């Protein structure tokens, strides 16, 4: 049977292990002895990670991001994690996934230890089987009948179950770890082992020797002999081993481990019992916060509850071990919960002794929500006044802003590519343009919030209105573009939205001063907290999980950033575009005078922009004509590297480098040129390889141009105009939060209008639906009423 496990390869582990587990757990005739496995090599093909793993023990990690440096880790598996819902038997698939994660970390060079429950549940399953088998045999002998009567199973004593289950549980772990070429060793302890100095030294020496040999110690309380826990029996400064929570904490401190991961059946520590109204998951828990937490009942199985876990966690933290309490049972996360924690992702509750200087991101989200609601209640003139004041501050504080930006530029020199450095740079002209754009926003925002879009008389004295309202709280994530901050801030203010800003660390100094100026402007009407700059070590992926606080995510940056955010966002809509693959089609009837200007401006004016030209489509009839030669000469002068598309390359004896992909955003002085036979072929090419951002036709034939404008399915489609016009400021929107290529809500450059949604207001006088029934006294009118005219000044 063991050879069957070895030959099974790396198919899904719970599938290949299940037949073996069933035969092992329920058969007395088959046992796996540790001696049959100890010859296995303890290394696998998983590559080592490159982060340094050694550190001086004595102080716990201050931030989640530091957990990736943990060398020695204890993983505690609670009873609810190990056992099935019926408490009889083990959750095999879940256990297999946990073993796989532990094995991955072990083979990265870490020292892993398990503290596991499950012996009682495993033993209960085996004893129930034996009792049923014994009763059925006796009943068959006495009754002489084939049909068995209903059999009652006596209450099974926990110690007996533990004694019957320990060997099977360990055999299961050994078989699982063997699949990853890792040895495991079992250690059973009791509270007395920690009170006896000699036994403590022996235990410590055994564990160190096992870790030195790259063996995973699997530790459990010896429930077959352990006495009942005595309440309030902790020694001075020492935690008693009452359950596996206290055992894991005691073991972690004794072994000077870097990290203790406690897996339970809840997401972590809540400020009130999970499932109760307003219960919130605590991201980071600090010593002394116990008074703010109300503990509920303990787990459905096991000795301890959340209060016991918190006590054990705080004791371990005091001993220099970092602690995370997380959910090990949820099917969507249990397959990667341990590795996610070690990677520093926001999973469960992290225990830390270092309180951050400022508010947490959750607190910032709540402040943005509250401040945004206050902002939305201001008069339009007051919101405009805030934006005008911010525009003035951008010019009045120009020297301070440029000095901060200079620090960012100096620190980024040599680390950022030239296009990103250009985006990072601020100048006097940029600040002046920003101020002009902000004043445009202020002037156009007078009736943005609360504008009536539709009025309907439902019935007599029952009138319905649809009005514009803010979306709520926006999260804007931007890279290398500090000028984005005041633009987005002004649009959020004008639309009455709360705002969370997450800028790149390369623009730290610039973003800090620009945010302070935004808050200074907001302070004139007491809504300073409506805009928050996230300065904590929050990963973008973690921010994208705050679906209770954020209503819309707007990424501003590289296509990779946008794709990562779209992938990471859980339940939060993302507005943006992943790529800016903009096309320009040069028709056979294009003007010689216009084409070179349009191509130069679209490609060379700012090649790093998302609205820069990336693919030039040339009508076949223009090849080897003066117009074509002018285009090539201009690109050569501008030092644009040309990549030939397949059809273009076929026309040339010596062609430029053939393009690797027709779906490429270069973001630099590089351009793909391809040949098409007609306007329809150009449209088909754009639909196949474009990104629905901005596409242009250059022609003097109005009919051809209109055909292109109507048939190209992109956010922006132009005729005889540069792709660079695809911009909120140039559209007269004042500024933009980004360009959206999605088909829902907003599309193209997204300005003020794209940050609004609507709500319905119904005003009646004691109206009830039953009055409109077949025999009711009222009838629906559904009359359209005039809408107040919008102020366009």
| Helix content bin | 25-40%
The amount of beta strand, in percent, is: 15-25%
- Give the biggest beta sheet: 8 strands, mixed
Task: Write down how many β-strands occur, each being a DSSP E stretch of 2 or more residues.
Answer: 24
Q: What class do helices, strands and sheet pairing give?
A: alpha/beta
Low-pLDDT regions = 1-51, 231-241, 299-303
Strand order of the largest sheet: 3-4-2-1-5-7-8-6
State the end-to-end CA separation.
84 Å
Q: Given the C-alpha coordinates, what overall shape results?
A: globular
Q: What is the radius of gyration?
A: 34 Å
**Number of alpha- plus pi-helical segments:** 25
Mean pLDDT: 83
Element layout with pairings:
Blueprint (H helix, E strand, L loop, with lengths): L1 H6 L5 H14 L45 E6 L1 H4 L9 H15 L4 E6 L2 H25 L14 H21 L5 E6 L1 H5 L1 H16 L3 E6 L22 H11 L4 E6 L19 E2 L20 H13 L3 E6 L9 H6 L6 E3 L9 H17 L2 H17 L1 H15 L5 H7 L3 H17 L7 E8 L2 E9 L2 E6 L5 H12 L2 E6 L4 H15 L8 E3 L6 H4 L8 E5 L2 H10 L13 E5 L5 H13 L8 E7 L6 H12 L3 E4 L1 H5 L19 E7 L2 H11 L4 E5 L3 H10 L4 E4 L18 E3 L7 E3 L5 E8 L19 E3 L8
What does this structure look like?
The protein is an alpha/beta fold and 793 residues long. It is 38% helix and 16% strand. The chain contains 25 helices and 24 strands. The chain has an eight-stranded mixed sheet, sandwiched between helices. Helix 2 crosses helix 6 (158-178) and helix 13 (380-396) packs antiparallel against helix 16. The longest helix has 25 residues, at 119-143. The protein is globular, with a radius of gyration of 34 Å. Mean pLDDT is 83; it is low at 1-51, 231-241 and 299-303. Pathway: Amino-acid biosynthesis; L-proline biosynthesis; L-glutamate 5-semialdehyde from L-glutamate: step 1/2; Amino-acid biosynthesis; L-proline biosynthesis; L-glutamate 5-semialdehyde from L-glutamate: step 2/2.
């Amino acid at each position: 049977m063991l050879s069957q496990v070895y030959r099974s390869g790396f198919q899904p582990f719970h599938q290949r292990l299940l037949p073996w587990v069933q035969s092992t757990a329920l058969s007395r005739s088959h046992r796996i002895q540790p001696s049959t496995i100890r010859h296995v090599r303890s290394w696998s093909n998983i590559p080592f990670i490159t982060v340094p793993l050694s550190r001086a023990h004595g102080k716990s990690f201050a931030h989640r991001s530091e957990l990736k440096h943990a060398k020695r880790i204890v993983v505690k598996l609670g009873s609810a994690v190990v056992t099935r819902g019926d408490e009889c038997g083990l959750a095999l698939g879940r256990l297999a996934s946990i073993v796989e994660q532990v094995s991955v970390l072990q083979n990265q060079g870490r020292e892993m230890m398990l503290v596991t429950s499950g012996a009682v549940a495993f033993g209960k399953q085996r004893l129930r089987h034996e009792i049923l088998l014994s009763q059925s045999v006796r009943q068959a002998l006495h009754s002489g009948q084939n049909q068995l009567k209903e059999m009652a199973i006596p209450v099974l004593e926990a110690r007996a179950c533990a004694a019957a289950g320990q060997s099977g549980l360990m055999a299961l772990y050994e078989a699982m770890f063997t699949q990853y070429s890792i040895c495991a060793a079992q250690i059973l302890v009791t509270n007395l082992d920690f009170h006896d100095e000699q036994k403590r030294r022996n235990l410590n020496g055994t564990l160190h020797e096992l870790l030195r040999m790259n063996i995973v110690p699997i530790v459990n309380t010896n429930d077959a002999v352990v006495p009942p826990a005595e309440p309030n029996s902790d020694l001075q400064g020492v935690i008693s081993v009452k359950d596996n929570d206290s055992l894991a904490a005691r073991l972690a401190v004794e072994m000077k481990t870097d990290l203790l991961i406690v897996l339970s059946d809840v997401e972590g520590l809540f400020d009130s019992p999970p499932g109760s109204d307003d219960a919130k998951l605590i991201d980071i828990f600090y010593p002394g916060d116990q008074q703010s937490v109300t503990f509920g009942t303990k787990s459905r199985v096991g000795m301890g509850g959340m209060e016991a876990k918190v006590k054990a966690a705080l004791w371990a933290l005091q001993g220099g071990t970092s602690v995370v309490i997380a959910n090990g049972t949820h099917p969507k996360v249990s397959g990667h919960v341990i590795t996610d924690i070690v990677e520093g992702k926001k999973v469960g509750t992290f225990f830390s002794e270092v309180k951050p200087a400022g508010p947490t991101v959750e607190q910032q989200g709540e402040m943005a929500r509250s401040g945004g609601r206050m902002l939305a209640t201001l008069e339009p003139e007051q919101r405009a006044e805030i934006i005008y004041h911010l525009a003035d501050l951008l010019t009045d504080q120009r020297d301070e802003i440029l000095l901060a930006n200079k620090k960012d530029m100096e620190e980024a020199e040599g680390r950022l590519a030239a296009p990103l450095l250009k985006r990072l740079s601020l100048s006097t002209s940029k600040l002046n343009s920003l101020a002009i754009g902000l004043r445009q926003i202020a002037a156009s925002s007078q009736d943005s919030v609360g504008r009536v879009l539709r009025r309907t008389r439902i019935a007599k004295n029952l009138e319905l209105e649809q009005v514009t309202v803010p979306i709520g709280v926006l999260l804007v994530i931007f890279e290398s573009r500090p000028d984005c901050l005041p633009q987005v801030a002004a649009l959020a203010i004008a639309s009455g939205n709360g705002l969370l800003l997450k800028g790149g660390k390369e623009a730290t100094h610039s973003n800090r001063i620009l945010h302070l100026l935004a808050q200074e402007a907001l302070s004139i009407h007491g809504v300073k907290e409506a805009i928050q700059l996230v300065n904590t070590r929050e990963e973008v992926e973690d921010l994208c999980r705050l679906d209770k606080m954020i209503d819309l995510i707007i990424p501003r940056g590289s296509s990779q950033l946008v794709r990562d955010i779209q992938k990471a966002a859980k339940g939060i809509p993302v507005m943006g575009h992943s790529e800016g693959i903009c096309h320009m089609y040069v028709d056979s009837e294009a003007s010689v005078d216009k084409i070179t200007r349009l191509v130069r401006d679209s490609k060379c004016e700012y090649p790093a922009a998302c609205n820069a030209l990336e693919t030039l489509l040339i009508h076949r009839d223009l090849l080897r004509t003066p117009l074509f030669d002018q285009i090539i000469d201009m690109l050569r002068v501008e030092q644009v590297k040309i990549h030939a598309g397949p059809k273009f390359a076929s026309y040339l004896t010596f062609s430029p480098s053939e393009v690797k992909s027709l779906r490429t955003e270069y973001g630099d002085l590089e351009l793909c040129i391809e040949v098409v036979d007609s306007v329809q072929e150009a449209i088909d090419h754009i639909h196949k390889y474009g990104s629905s951002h901005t596409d242009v036709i250059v022609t003097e034939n109005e009919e051809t141009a209109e055909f292109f404008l109507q048939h190209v399915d992109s956010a922006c489609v132009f005729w005889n105009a540069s792709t660079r016009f695809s911009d909120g400021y140039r559209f007269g929107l004042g500024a933009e939060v980004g360009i959206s290529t999605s088909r829902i809500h907003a599309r193209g450059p997204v300005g003020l209008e794209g940050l609004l949604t609507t709500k319905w207001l119904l005003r009646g006088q004691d109206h009830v639906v039953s009055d409109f029934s077949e025999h009711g006294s009222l009838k629906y009118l559904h009359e359209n009423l005039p809408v107040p005219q919008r102020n366009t000044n």
